[in-house]
Design a protein that fits this description.
This protein is of the alpha+beta class and 255 residues long. The protein folds into 3 domains: 49 residues, Orthogonal Bundle (Arc Repressor Mutant, subunit A); 64 residues, no CATH class; 104 residues, no CATH class. It contains 11 helices and 11 strands. The strands form 4 sheets. A 4-stranded mixed β-sheet has the order 3-4-6-5. A hairpin with a 2-residue loop joins strand 1 and strand 2. The longest helix is centred in the N-terminal third of the chain and has 13 residues. It is elongated and about 70 Å long.
């Protein structure tokens, strides 16, 4: 058996995976050390490895596969999920990883992997024939991006990304909104998605629900921008800078 050819079949692997080829863990550790010393595999973090391609000299695992293997519950989320689905044309070198177990940020192959707390397990899918990629579905990706737009991608980037999306499943968005149970999230989601209602295929009743659940408070759409235009329907102050976004601003036709 050539262990290198076995690990090439696994984009990301651990010592425990290697134990299946040996009688004990010490033999498995010794085999991994030999491959490391020969430059045939590379250490990602802690007990996590990937093979080095003999053709390209680059790691076999991509950032989505690595993100999905950081912990037993990890998955691709937020802007990185937008990248996975091909919704955004901008590559971030921060990889956002949802997980029930916290971990310290780490750098591998030029990317920084950052922990995002998992609030609930719904809306996470394991993609077939992807080498183990787990990622939030499109609907949860939409909602998570809106919820955390001041913390991660920023209001402009989130709005531009959403403007590139097409039909979504309304019932899933309603389900995830209920799980978050946050008035401000209903308010932001209602406002932003109302600008692209027809593109996403959302019903009028969806926005009635968002208005009913938004409460009576006036809020800033983005805490990063205090100057803006007041939207009386959604009781939100909309940053002026969003009216100059690359997709033409927050209008029914363009966002």
């Amino acid at each position: 058996m050539d262990l290198y050819y076995e690990v090439l079949k696994r984009p990301v692997f651990t010592i425990n995976d290697i134990c299946g080829f040996y009688n004990n863990i010490e033999s498995a550790r010794s085999a991994v050390k030999r491959l490391l010393s020969k430059g045939r595999i590379i250490h990602i973090r802690n007990n996590l490895y990937t093979a080095i391609s003999g053709e390209t000299g680059a790691p076999v695992a991509n950032r989505f596969q690595i993100a999905s293997a950081v912990t037993d519950t990890s998955y691709v989320t937020h802007h990185t999920a937008m990248e996975y689905y091909g919704i955004t044309d901008q590559v971030f070198y921060d990889v956002y990883v949802g997980s029930e177990t916290a971990f310290q940020s780490f750098v591998f192959d030029g990317y920084t992997y950052r922990y995002v707390k998992c609030r609930f397990p719904e809306g996470i899918e394991e993609i077939g024939y992807s080498g183990g990629v787990r990622v939030t579905d499109r609907e949860r990706t939409v909602l998570d991006s809106i919820k955390d737009m001041d913390k991660i991608a920023g209001a402009e980037e989130v709005i531009d990304n959403l403007g590139a999306m097409k039909l979504v499943k309304e019932d899933r968005i309603i389900q995830y909104l209920a799980l978050y149970n946050n008035q401000f999230l209903y308010q932001k989601t209602g406002y932003i998605l109302s600008r692209i209602q027809n593109k996403l295929g959302l019903s009028d009743s969806f926005f009635e629900l968002c208005r009913d659940k938004s409460g009576k408070s006036t809020r800033y759409l983005s805490s990063d921008h205090k100057n803006g235009v007041y939207d009386s329907e959604w009781k939100l102050v909309i940053p002026e800078i969003l009216f100059q976004s690359k997709n033409g601003g927050v209008t029914d036709a363009n966002i």
